[in-house]
Amino acid sequence: MATSWPDIRDVPATALEVVAPQLGLLPMFIADYPRDEKARWAYLERIRRHLGFVRCDRTQRQHLLDHLTSVCPQRASHRNVRHAHAGSD
Description:
This protein has a domain at 36-89. Helix content is 54%, strand content 0%. It contains 4 helices and no strands. The chain has helices spanning 13-22, 37-51, 58-71, 78-86. The chain is elongated. It starts with 12 loop residues before the first helix and ends with a helix.
């Protein structure tokens, strides 16, 4: 039988410190995670490595953008994608 805590913030710190590493997590509650830009990029990089993704170079990004805009030309929002991409370099 599975049980759960009524409020996860009541989980004892010792339990969190033991269980979190077993799950590959930091032993802290999501509300306590830093929310700054540096942490955001660090999380994205960690997810990318975990999933085996690699960063696209400029040519690959352009090929992807060309493909996406060719399969979605009827959507007005594709202009916004091109505009956003132009500012990413």
